[in-house]
Each structure stands twice: as structure tokens, then as C-alpha cells.
Amino acid sequence: MSHSSVFVTTFLAAAVEVIEMVIIVVGVGSVRGWRSTWLGAGAGFGVLAALVLALGTALRAVPIGALRLVVGSLLLVFGLQWLRKGIRRVAANGLRGMGERAASAEGVPAEGVDWTAFVLSFKGVLLEGLEIAFIVVSFGLAAQALGTSVLGAVAALVVVAGAGLLAVGWVARIPRSALQLVVGTLLSSFGTFWAVQGLGVAWPGDEAAILGLVGWYLLAALGYVALGRRRVQRLDVLEVGR
Amino acid sequence: MTLILGWLKGFGLFWYGFVVGDDWTVAATVAAALVATGLLHAAGVAAWWLAPAAAVAAVGLSLRRTGW
Question: What are the chain A neighbours of B23 within 8 Å (beta carbons)?
């Protein structure tokens, strides 16, 4: 395998993981606010760096399956909480709340660290970062081009994270009521994917299954929103009739 | 001692809110679905569909139970 093939292969494989990492960080930051989200991401990178420095190529000994199961399960149950809240809000208010501050979101502390944002961001960065490190070590050692493999992963991180930062402004334009539903959908999708994968179950289409899960949860959420709106309209009719 | 107990209580409450939230049945359904997925997988059955199906059903039942 030539160095350019190692670079491209590592870049593409790592880019998939970085996209997942960036979606979680941008989603959580947009809903809960940025300070604690960045703190969580920074702490995740810190722990990742310490693990990489301490273990080096022995990193592959880390039980990634168990980690996927734990992180995925936690993301799934938390994502479903946001999905339910988002469904209720969109059903009750429609797409209102555009441009409101993220700190207005329910349960976000005005001062100190928002541990929810911290933990979500930390877990997303640590798990995805570990997966990237595995990719780098596996491809790098197999092709005896560890340096090139590291470069490919760093390039993926810079390119995708840069695109993610540019997307922050676009995400801020999504109405607040819908944002929690969208981020809940994404967290539930990633959580389901990782938890089931952590059990050793293979997804049809591998990572592409995440897109199917996003579609599945989004369709279900829109169905529940439609049912909820019908109920709200029925209550309005009853109210007017009195 | 009081400080440590207060910290432990806060830590426990945070994780309870993070995992369980305002409806414990969703977390319980997800846990049961994942256990069932693991058992089916061990028995050689393709069970990737079980967790997403159970999650959507749990959300619907939770919405209904809490006033829909």
C-alpha cells in the first residue's frame, strides 16, 4: 500500500468518525450553550491524548465494544428524552422560537458548568476520538506508514471540524422548538447504532445504517407531532365551543 | 463529611436525571430491548431492528402516558 493510498484511506475512514463527533458537539452546543460543550469536548480530547500517549499502539487493547455499548446506551436514553420534549414543543407551538438564546433551553444553569452538555460532548469526543485512533493505528501498522496515517486523520479532523464550525451559524437559524427534536433524533440514532454495535451485532450497510436510523426516528417524530397537533386542534375546537 | 454526602447526592441526582429523566419507562424499555438484542444475537438471530423499534414504541407510550 503506497503512502498516498494510506493517507486517502485513513482520511476517509477518520472523516466518517469526525462527522459523527462534530454533529454531536454542534448539536449539543446549539441546544445547551457553548461554554460547557467546549469544556466537555476539551476534556474528551485531553483524556484521549493521555490514552494515546500512555498506550501508544497498544491502544487496540481498549475494549471498544464495551465502551460503545455504555456510551451508546447513555446517548440513546438521553436522546429519547430530548426527542420527546422536542415532539411536545413542536406539536404545541409549531416552529416558534427562532433566534432565542440557547441558555433559555429547559434546565440549563445560568452559572457554572452545565454537566449535561459537558458529559454529552465529552462522551462523543472520547468515543469517536478512540475510534479514529484505532483506525490510525490499524491502517498505519498494516501499511507500515504510521506517520502518514496520523496525517490523514489530522487532515480529516481539520477539514470536517472546520466545516462544522461554519455550520454553527446555519444551525443557529433552526427554530429552537425544532432544534431539540432534530438533536434528539441525531443523539438517539448514534446511540442506537453504537449500543447495538457494542453488543457485537452487525448493522446492514455498516455506518450507512446511521442514515437509516436518522430517517426512522425523524419519521416517527413527525408522526407523533402530527398526532399531537391534531390533539391540540381538537382541544382548541372544544375550547371555542364553550 | 456533609460536603462529600452533598456531592455524592448531587452526582447521583445528575446521573438519575441524565439516564431516567421524567419517565423511567423509556430507560427501562431501552435496557430491556438491548438485553433482548444481545440474547437474540447470541442465539444467532439478526436483531439489529429491535432496539430502534422498541425506542420509538417507548416514546409513543411515554407521550400517551404523560397526557397525549
Answer: 84
Residue holding cell 429552537? A176
Distance of CA A33 to the CA centre of its chain: 15
CB A203 within 8 A of CB A128: no
pLDDT of residue A96: 63
Min Cα separation B48/chain A (Å): 6
Query: Nearest to residue A211, comparing CAs of A14, A32, A23?
Result: A23
**pTM, 2 dp:** 0.79
Interior angle at CA A143, CA A140 and CA A148, nearest 5? 50
Q: Give ipTM to 2 decimals.
A: 0.91
- Most B CBs within 10 A among A71, A73, A74, A84, hence the mutation to make, goes to A84
For residue A80, the distance in angstroms to the closest alpha carbon of chain B comes to 7
Portion of chain B with pLDDT greater than 90, in percent: 59
What total of structural domains would you count in chain A?
1
